[in-house]
Structure formats: structure tokens, C-alpha cells
């Protein structure tokens, strides 16, 4: 590449980068810009794993440090006006600062920050996106240098120069402050504690003055009454700054933005004068009345924040009440005056006003609000506004949840107010129930006319709103309930009339039939809404608060809904297809399922005997006297949802209904008492005898679905049935009756495999595909030894050959994955269910079958090429993941004595492990970490293998060992929400280190000569590798005795450490004659001694993670670190010395003390007490290091490792 680029060419490349004519052009431009403006992103380990850094691609040799690259970016900013070049230079500076800030000296940090500030001051007319990027760059520099640079902490004073100029500079200064406040509030990813310390520093010294300055400037703008474009920009900038200040994470709770409506703002006590004395609310309310949208919307957002200031901030009850009353007064004026109502005609203002009401009520107690002198008028005004808001749902549907929240919180605190006020609020809730009911019924017409989206399509969002509505309706349950019952009866009468008319005219399409069809659809959906409303009210019943009158209303609800269900079943059986609607069918049946769930949770169970009024009404109208009878109705009704109509146009809706019905069944069968209930039902007894009914179309093997959730339905179905079947103890006869249909099916398949029967290959494949899904679900619910042995006795050895035969015929097809998933469930020993008698060979036989299965499938995987990189997960890696999981479950199941295989020369274990090693080597390590499920399965099996099986092997191939150590080393530093991979990798490292260290200690204790030799070797510093010498000396014998290795390794003598980094040639010669008296070294010990660089690499990786990263698995990280240090104490001392010397001079001495304290009180053993002591030291070491800005040092950088 050229050594340099002229400005014009550079600008062209920047333009190509952001506006490329084609992908290759962008790649070329990016490569050239990376060459001339390197980020050095691989230095100090700052590049994410798997990323290709610019320095790996090569960069300009004239640029040797990040500061030089930053100076080139600065030069570009000073000499170009091209917006693309300006954007590139700014973005590259942000990358350099974010990754390499610790490599800049304090003077360089200060100079770069000053340059950015000066550049913005001199160029206030830059494009908005460049200004935003520059402001963010300034904010990042300020954040990262806040602790070390005193000048950075006088932020407001440095920005004052912008405020002394015109509106353009003032807007720019405000945006800079907003960027800093926003950036400080973002959680850090590399050094969380340091970033939080900087945020606390801003909070304590600058945030309040910034907020006060913004408030003062807003007041000045308000008084000036100007409306030019620059003033409008200044208004918005000031309001955004104030909003950012109040949204600051004052206490380090790190709540997400999505949850900011859930709590009050924890403003520090030093802010008290702002809210008590400064006229803050007066300024905001006046600004809202004066400003036009969108500025007025931002003002209302600030008022929403002001409404949620914590109660304890105020100096006393009087000041807090004055603040509350001021808020309530302005809310009252807004709702009762024409000017306020006109402002609320704006959608943004209306929405934020509703949000402000919600946050106001969540923060302040109802007793405080009700002490307002005009509280009844205020509540009436808010109630009327809420009713209008419910009816205006088409205009602002997202505002309704805030209004529901306000009244939900209000009625939840009625016990704390006067009786008169309580009655007034209850009267309001009746009107609110009427308005909400009306809005729901009107919603049906709006959806039919295409004016709005159907809320019934998103049941999750619907149920959230219903949960809040129910508390409002139950506060005056009798009156609100009568409204719902009355409307339900009227609609039921209308529904019957429409059914009669539809029956009389038949199913032929005509003008009259079209009108009837639309009317039927409207009434059905309106009844669906009422079923949802009534069901939610039933589900909100609180047993100890409910009265007999309320239970009577709930009984009326249940009777009306059951009447509608009966009427619907009759109509469904006889209606012409023309009048049917798949969407309406889904919504209606979903509402009915919701009713069943709520009624079961409330009135079926141990406390059902206390709900006399409900069952009195159910008995008088429907003959349902007991909960069991109601359960029977529920199960019988819900079973109809499992039966398909066979109409392909209903397929999507029936699949969703199937999922919801199975969810209902799962809930009914989930509890101990409830599963006992339904186990005795006649419907369930019949279902257990006929669980594979032909009208259950989802069990049809030829029925396919692209929806993975629907594809799992048969697995969920048999999981539920298995749980019900095994709810009783003596079920042997029922079990054998239950599996009769499966026996018949599998016998037909077995016959077909030997050339008999009438099944074709595709028929066999589809049957087995469904069968293994069924068996997987069935075995999932097996929880104890007796149940498992029943299934095992049936399945083995009669049908296990079918599994092997199927995997041999269709390994690459979709049947292979269901087989492996079933087998994984079959061999998993959860709850110790896989337990056989001491005289039983079943555990060994089970693993032998597993070995046959894995060998057949694994051999195919090894020969299976990856044709497309984008599909390598589905083509190969998913099967490998299941292979790993099955192997892990088998090795850790504790039902097989694996020593038997070696004793009798059985190759079952060897075959599986050999294929396991080959599969492992066939996966690039980057892919192992790129696919989380694959990585989790791999590190889990490695952890299990290292615990019980690795050390028992006679040897292992060196490529396999190298792969394992490299994989665990690369997984530890990976960042991510799930730390399970790094935890299991650390566990595997710990097990290996523990074995090696314990072997050396044991060998030293057993052989006094070996101990003497180890002590002498520890006293020798620079020596030749004793293992290599020993191997050369013993080559003639054809074997390698490991005594020299043990002698070179043992170091638990007077110095209390073990160092495997050296030995004396003369000493080795002296002791070689004694080797025959010492035991040979274990092959793993020998490998570790010969490959010290691997241990060094792992030690450096773990040490760096402990020092520089904030992890949630520090305990897991500390366990292998101790073993690595004890095995490599000399290397650890040398590396930490290099690490300390690499830091700034003022940090070296305190850091050296911390390093020394890490091993304080640590002995050379791996006892639990010693490990716990080291973990405590490591946690203290990490906390103290997080308070300092440190430079990472890799082993390569230190010159210790090659």
C-alpha cells in the first residue's frame, strides 16, 4: 500500500465507506482506511474474540502507537470539510479513545479533549450527525479520564464559554452537557466499578449545577417569549438536558429504560432546594402551557419525572404536601379549563399526561393525595378524563395502560382513606367499568371496519391490561358485575336470535346471509370480550377479602359463560361452514380457555369448600355440585380443541389453539393436588385408554408444521399424559394398557424392517418421527426408579434395535434429531431415576446401546461435509451438540461402572470417546464459541470427562489435548450474559490442575528421595528441561519413566511451592540411577510438564479476567487460578513483576502490595480451607484493582512466552 494518501483521495475513500457503490468497494475503502488509521485493537486484548483487527491485517509502519493514529485523525478534522471524512475521523477517534485510552498520557488525554472542545466551538454549523458524534467523543473522553484528570471535573466551567455567545453556541454547549450526562449514565462494560465511580463523581460535583443552569436558562427563554428556530432548538436542548439529569442513575440501580415507570427517582438530598424553593414546578407548568409541540411534549416528560420524585427527599410532611398539592392543582386546571383541554388534543401531550398521572400515583400515597382540600372534585375530573381516555383508545391506545395503572393503584389503597372518599372512589370505578366495557365492545366494530388492530390477537398484552382492570371492577364488585352480566345477557339473547335466523336461511351465500354472518361475528367477538373481562374478575378474587355477595356475582359470571359455551357447542355442531370464521373461533376458544384457567385457580382446590355461593348457582342452573364435576366439564370441553376440523384454511388458528389448550392441560396437571384431582376424572380415564385417537390430527405423522412450537405439541401432550398416568402408585396394569397403541405401531415398523407388512419407507420414517417425539415427552415426566424401570423393561431390548436401525438409515434426515433428543432424555439420570439393582447388568447394557447409537450417528457426522457455511448448525452442529449432551449424561449418570469395559476388553467406551475426539477436532474453536448451545454442550462434557474419565485413560492424542486446553483458554475471556461456558471451562481446568498437583504432592510424600530431589531442584534457577533429558536418557529402554518428572515437579517442601519450569542437568544425572525406585509419572502429569507454555497461557488468561473484567462467576474463576499459580509459581512471580512494571510509576507500589496480598496465607495444597482463603484474597485483589486504571500485559508482550 502507499505510504500516504492525499486529502482528496482520503475524502473519496471516506465517502465510499459510508456511501459505497457496491460491497467490494466498501471493503476496499475500509481496508485502506484501517491501514492508514490503525486502531491497534488487538493490543492488550481489546479485540473481541473472533474479530479481525486492523493490525492483524497490517497497518502503516510509520504509525507505531495509538496516539499517532489519533493525531492523524485530528489532522484530518482540521483540514477537511467533507462530512464523510469528518464522520470517519470522529468515529475513529472514538474507537481509539474507547480501546486505547490507558495508553495515552495525562497530557495527551487533556490535549485531545481540549481539541474537541475547541473544534466544536469554532465549527458550530456542522451537520447535526457530526455534532452528535463529536459530542459523544467529548463525553467518552470525559468519562474515561474523570478520575485521573482534575481538569475534567470542572465540566460546567469549561462549557460556560459556549453560553456567553449566541443561541447557536448555547445549543451546542447544552448538547455537550447532555452527551456527558448520558454517557456517564451508561453502564461500563470493561471496568464497571471505575465507570460507576466516575458517574458518582459527576453526580456529586457537577450534576446539580448543570441541572440548575439548565433550569435557569429555561426560565430565561420562557420570559423572553421568542419563537425563532434557534430558540426552539434551545428549548428542546434544555429540556433534553433536564430530562437526562433527572433520569440519571443516582443510586447505581442500573434499571432498564423499559422499567423506568416502575419506581420513584432517587434524587439526592442536596437537590432538595430545587423542588422546595426554586419554583421548579411553576417553571415547568408555565412552559407546558406556553410552548408548542414538540417542546411541550418534552416539558410533560419532565413533569412525569417531577411526579415521581421520591417522597423522602422533602424536609417534612408540609413541604411534601405542598409539592403534591401544587401538582394536583395544575392537573385540575388542565382538566377543567379550555386551554388545558386544548393542549391535551395533541397526541404526544395526551400520552405523556396519562403517563404523568400514572407515575404520580405510584410515587405518592393515596392518603396524602386525599388530604387535598378539593379531592372529590379532583378525583371526579381525573375519573371523567379516564373514561374519555378509555373511549379514545383508537386515538391513543398506548395511553390506556397508564390510566388503568393510576386507578389500579388508587383502589388498592382504599383502606387508608376516609369512608366518604372511599365511597366516592368506588362510585367512580363503576363509571370506569362502564366506559371500559363500552370501549371493548366498540373495539369490535373498529376492528371489523379495519380502523384499528385487533387487541385479541396479542393475548399477552391483553392480559396485562385485564389484570389492572379487574382490581378496578372488584372495588365495587356487585354494581360492576351487574353491568357485565346485563350486557352479557342482552348479547346472548341477540346471539340466539341470529343463530335462529342463520339456521332458517341455510348456508347459501346471499345478501341476507352476509349481513347475518357479519352480525354473528360481531356478537361473538363482543361476547369474547365479556368472557375475558368476567374471567379476569373471577381470577382476581382474594379468598380472605371476598364476601358471599361477591362470590354470588362470580357464580353468575360462571353460569353465563358456561351457558354461552353450551350454546356455542350446539351452534358449532350444526352451523353451515359459511358462517364459520377461523379467527373468531380462535379468539372465542382462547377466551374460554382463559376462563377455565381463572376459575380453576380460584374456585377449584383446597379452599373450594368455602365458595358455597358459586357452587350453589352452578348446581341450580347446570347441575355442577362439586369441583370435580366442573373439572370434568373443563377437560371435556378443552379436549374438543385437540380435534381438528380438517379444513386447511383453519390450520394456523387451530395450531395456536392447540398450543393454548395444551398449556391449559399442563397447568391442570402441574400441581400435586390438581393432578390427583384430574387423575380421577372420567374424561381423563377415557383419554388414557384412547390417547392416540384418530381425530387428534396433531398426532398424524403426515401432518407437518413450520412452527417449531406447534411441532413440539405431541411432545408436550405426552409429557402431560405421562405426568397424569404416574400420579398414582400402582399403575402397572394401566401402563401396559397405555403403551398398547405404541406396541402395535412399533411392531408394524419392526416387521417392515425385515421385509414384511405394508409400510413403505416414507411411512416408516414419518411414523418413527412422531413416535420418538411421543416417547421423549413420555419419558420427560418419569421421576422415580419404579416408573423408569417399567419403561425400560418395555423398551429394552425389544425396541432398541429399531432406534439403531433408524439412525443408520436416516442419519441425515429430520428423524435423526428427534431420535437423539429422545435418547438424551432416556439416559439422563435426573432425580436418580436410572437406578438398577446391584446384581443387574442393565446400566452396562444401557451404555452399550448408547455406544452403538452414538457410534453409528457419530461416524455419519464425521463423513458429512458442510455444504453451506450458513447452514452448518442445522446440517452438522446440532447433531454434534446432541452427541455431546448424550455422552455427558451417560458419563455422569452414575449407573454404569465403566471399569468393566476395560476389564473385559469391551470397546464400547473407547469407540464413543474416539468419535468424540474426532468430532471435537472437526469443529473450529471459533465455531465452538460462536454457537452457544454447541459450546455449552462441549464444555459440559469436557467438565464431566475431566472429572471422572480423563485421568483413567491410558493416554490421549496430543492434538486432542491441545484442542481442549486451547478451547477452555479461549472460552474464559468471552463476555456474555451466560457465563456457564466459562464456568465449566474453569471447572475442567481446576480438575486437571488438582489432579497434577495432588499427584506430585502424593508422589513426594511417598518417596523421600523424590522429595529431596524436588527440594534441590527448587534451589536451582536456570536449568535444562528435566523431562526432555529424562526422555533422551531412557530412549534406549523403549519406555519413559516419570520419576524425573515427578522430581522436577515436586515443590511442597520448605519453600511451600511447586515450580515446573526447571531442573538441574547435573542433578538429573545424579538421580537417574534412582529412577527405577520411583514410580512412573502419569501421562497427564508428564504432558503438563512438557507443555508448560499451556499452563502459562491459562494462568495469564485467568489472571487478566480477574483483574480487568467484572464477572458474575468470580468464585469459579478463582478455583483453577490457585492450582495454576501453585504449579507455576516462578512464572507467576515473573509475569506479575512484568505486569507491575508496565503500569504508571505512581501505581506500581500499591499494585505490588496487592499482588503480594493475593498469595498471603496460601499453602501449597488444594484443601477446601486453602481454596476458600484464596478466593477471599482474589475478591479483595479484584476490588482494589478495579479502582485503578491498569494496562493489560499478555505473556507475549512480557517476553516470557514464545
Describe this structure in words.
The chain has 1202 residues and is an all-alpha fold. The protein is built from 58 helices and no strands. α21 runs parallel beside α23, α22 (459-474) packs across α24 (511-539) and α26 (582-603) packs antiparallel against α28. The longest helix is centred in the N-terminal third of the chain and has 33 residues, at 192-224. The protein is globular, with a radius of gyration of 37 Å. The protein starts with 6 loop residues before the first helix and ends with a helix.
Number of helices: 58
Strand content: under 5%
The oligomerization state is single chain
**How would you describe the shape?**
globular
| Secondary-structure class | mainly alpha
| N-end to C-end Cα span | 30 Å
Largest sheet, described in full? none
Mean residue pLDDT: 85
Radius of gyration: 37 Å
The beta-strand count equals 0
Helical content stands at: 55-70%
